Amino acid sequence: MLTSMAFAPLSVTEALQQPLQCTETALLLEITTAAPNTDVIFRVFPTPDPGPVFFMSNPLLEHHTLPPFSAIKPEHVKPAIEELLNLNKRRIRELLEGFAETEDTPLWNTLVEPMADWSDELSQAWSPVGHLNGVMNSDELREAYNACLPLLSQYYTEMGQNEALFRAYEALAESEHFDTLSTAQKTAIQHELRDFRLSGVDLPPAKKERYAEIQQQLSKLTSKFSENVLDATGAWSKHITDVSELDGVPESGLGLLKQQAQQKELDGYVITLDFPSYMPVMSYGTNRSLREELYTAFVTRASDIGPNGGEFDNSQNLKDIMALRYELATLLGFENYAEYSVATKMAQSGQEVIDFLNDLAGKAKPQAEREFAELKAYAADELGLTDLKPWDVTFAAEKLRQARYSISQEDIRPYLPVNTVIKGMFEVVSRLYSVEFVEQTEFDTYHPDARFFHVMKDGQQIAAFYLDLYARAKKRGGAWMDDCRVRRRTSDGLQLPVAYLVCNFSPAVGETPALLTHDEMTTLFHEFGHGLHHMMTQIDVSAVSGINGVAWDAVELPSQFMENWCYEPEALAFLSGHYQTGEPLPQELLDKLLAAKNFQSAMMTMRQLEFALFDFRLHREYSTENPVTAEQILGEVREQVTVVPTVEFNRFQHGFTHIFAGGYAAGYYSYKWAEVLSADAYSRFEEEGIFNPDTGASFLKEILSQGGSREAAELFENFRGRKPSVEPLLRHSGIDIPEVA
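Given the sequence above, the corresponding structure tokens read:
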């Protein structure tokens, strides 16, 4: 059993000069530093066998401008997080004791700044771990990551319920000093006070203890939910040796399936449930039984009837998560989890969210029903699919798109090589905000696919980002942006924001470069919009810098806003270029693409509303007395809004990581809520010119640069000059706008 001996804090140089005194036959000395100019933390342990004294370093406890990915190993994770959590607890305790002894009123620089410094140290250690867990998952890393979740949950709960810390912030907010602070500083303090109350700082001891237990359990359950989806996705594959079974799948899709087989040292083709592999078969494969097999495997992932015999079943996790969320909300005095969620959002109440979703559903459903009737008739008349099943819908829709507009995603793909798209995307942003992007060839990376860019303005670096675009084994599905570093003012100067941008596109196949579909290009623009929100901020207060402090139902505004340029002819002229000839998208294809822009848009709107209503109603209606099930609510929502066929065995909810393992619980409606904002914001560009530098400068000034320093509604009205209107969204989506009587 190892024992540790404490020493007084010393500098590294001083520590190394100290004689070691002990009676053990051998020692292991570990010295770690959290950051420059901070206390040295070191422990001396007896070793079981005699041997030389040696030193161990932990890269997660060293100061780095960027994460030292190549040096991070799973065994570093838990010791580093434990050290930092213990160090921060001691620092905060001593800080509060100092205020108590001197009876001084806390100031920004004596309370908020040191707290921000310590929080950032912890974030800089945990951020690369979380990123690696998502993009380079392994059993060892997962174990280390999961071991830290309860520690972090306990720490943040303790901080959120620390009454002395709360009183310190409260005293600062009530002081004359508060009036001298900037808007961003005031907002940061107000958010802290709100979050203290949402963390149960006012609860009696027994309820505080229960709150902490709930948070720890939720942390474990949501992580397990996500892991089950990842594992269930990775556990299923289908090996095909007869290419005729893949009739209709385009060459780009076949190339990927063949490459996946080669990676498994198999002949023929391998299909997985990763989206770049799954979608070409569902969209183009004429083999109906194969589509049914794939669809069944996909929609039953991580469920009781999943293809792995329920090995990764999320049924109980889902139930436990709902029960704990309800208990958490009611502990804090909310009627349900939905009302708890809305407390930090633009929407003023749960009823406002429900009314918004129902109103939009009422406007879109008649057109969605007409669209599906057209699809059903076409499938019966032209494809012989008289009984249209869920696994036929994507296939039939693609056939109808081709018949109506003579265009498919595969027609566009050769004109969208990834490097051309990236260069064009940079050009769009450069025209809007006068910035440049410079790729870095030498940086510490975690995978050959990862790329790294500096963002430059007026010759100075203002931000940076990692770009990781391709699907691979042990990488979480979907697309996302996360922060690596947040912009903040420190004693050493300005810390620049750094972002992670992650997608799951099809990689290069053989000699052919990675080619994007138009949908994938739109996804890239979406995530880059999130990245710009994080990187273009001019706020120096970390709590409200970039995406921090932004209401969740407004955070999708910059991302959805960026998607609009994917449909602008002027932008597509330099976003596209045939991978062999460099020829931009021909006018004929461009015309077809724009004509097909709103193909089945009402059906897609209803699909998003199905997800949003299911999420919000489940979290609003679940209670201990009325433990409604996900299946029950989903069934009721589908009766209200769904226009496409469904099957009883669909277990979509078991893989809905957005709400059961991500940040969208009782918040999935944010996509549609923010889409109203983004469409209306873009309508100003339509009025004034899509590359009007003054309009771009206004969006940068009023939206992107402000972070969470002001209310989202205020920022939007500052940019648009009025409250948001739903009409631009309906117009952009090609949905008929009801006439006002």
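Residues 1-55 have pLDDT under 50 and may be disordered. Try to locate this feature in the token string yourself.
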